[in-house]
Structure formats: C-alpha cells, structure tokens
Amino acid sequence: MKNDAQASVILADSQFLITDAMQLLLKAEGYRLLGVAKYVFELEKLLQAEVPDLLISDYATVDYEGIDAFKSMMQRFPGMTIMVLTNQLIKADLLGLSKLGIKHIVCKTIDRDELLMALRLAIKGRKFFSEEVMEVMMDEQKRKVSNMEQVQLTHTETEIVKMIAEGLTTKLIATTKNISFHTVMTHRKNIFKKLGVSSSSELIMYAIRSGWIDNIEYYI
C-alpha cells in the first residue's frame, strides 16, 4: 500500500465537528482527502469518482442499512481499507464488524497521537482496535475464560496464535515455520477446537485475555 503522504482518504460521518477536525488533521499530516460524505448517496458518488486507499466512517451516524453495508463495500472495493471511527461501543456491533473483516475500529475519544498511529497502521494494512473497543469486545472472552479451566496449548500452537495475531496468513505461517499448509490448517483447527472459538478475532481476544499475548503487541 502507499505511504502516508500518498494515501487517499474519504470521510463519511454526519457529525460536522468530527469531519471538520478530521479534515484539518488529515491535511496537516499530508493525506490526500478525496471528499466528505454525510449520507450514503454522497459516499456512493465519491466512491464512483475514485476509490480511496482508506475510508473512515461511523456506521452509527451515516444512514447505512446496518453494518452489513460495510460487507457490500468490501466486496465491491476490495483494495479499500475501512476504518470505523465511532462512539457506539455496542458489543454485538463491534463483534459483527470484526467478523465482517473490519480490522480498524477506533473510539472517537481517542487522543491525537493514538489516532495518528491508527491511521499509519491502517495504511500499512496492520490491525488496530483502540483500547476502549478492545475492552468491550473482550468482555465476552473474559466470561468464557473465567468459566472454563485454563487450556494448555503446545509450544507450536502458541507460536501459531502469535503469528495469527500479527496478521500472517496460513500460507505465510507455513513458510515461516517451514511446514506444510495442511499442517498449519490442522494446528488452526485444533487450536479453535481447544479454545471453543470460531474466528481469528475471537482467538486473538481469548489469547489476550488469557495472557498468552500482550495487548500492546496486538495494537502495534
């Protein structure tokens, strides 16, 4: 993906205080702002004109028809990264966004330095959930961990969990560990079964809550 100075951005949010502040910040940091949308039809026009490297949007303030609207955009514009910037920290919605494949969810109370870091990581394709978002999302995993006996993973399984948290694909994990793709898939299935999780996001949250992975490693 392009570096920060070359990255193009579209803002989609109906709160003018947010869009005005974000416009100033993005321009000051050298991002190329393609436009601002308050409504879905305005966003569609901007996307038809030019697909940005990064879409920053709040699903709660723009008139989307639920979070599935992001799924449609991800399918139509696979090269576009989506960052959700919101104050609606509803667990079901956040988990739903994560399961859709949204890898960047940030609370609007985030400070300037952390927001700039989130932008840089998004442009680089690295995952980032702000601390408030992670706390809400991990609440469910906290309950699961407290209600079941601590599960023991093998050394290899623990390494694979860390690689998944770093965003490595199954193919890259296989190459890094010099094992077959099929072997990695078998390890993944065993890990998911042991922990009772069904997605990589759930796996990472479980691992953080259990202390297997430092949450700072996951953010950065």
Mean pLDDT across the residues is: 84
- Give the radius of gyration: 18 Å
Q: In CATH's first tier, which class of the largest domain applies? A: Alpha Beta
Amount of helix: 55-70%
State the helix count. Answer: 11
Number of discrete domains:
2
Q: How do the SSEs run, as a string of H and E? A: EHEHEHEHEHEHHHHHH
CATH topology of the largest domain: Rossmann fold
Structure summary, number of beta strands: 6
Could you explain the architecture of this structure?
The protein is of the alpha/beta class and 220 residues long. The protein has two domains: 4-137, Response regulator (Rossmann fold), CATH 3.40.50.2300; 148-219, Arc Repressor Mutant, subunit A. Helices cover 55% and strands 12% of the residues. It contains eleven helices and six strands. The protein has helices at 16-28, 40-49, 68-76, 91-100, 112-124, 131-146, 155-165, 170-177, 181-195, 200-210, 215-219, and strands at 8-12, 32-37, 54-57, 81-86, 104-107, 128-129. The protein has a six-stranded parallel β-sheet with strand order 2-1-3-4-5-6, with helices on both faces. The longest helix has 16 residues, at 131-146. The chain is elongated. Mean pLDDT is 84; it is low at 216-220.
Notable features of this structure?
alpha/beta, Rossmann fold, Arc Repressor Mutant, subunit A, 2 domains, 55% helix, elongated
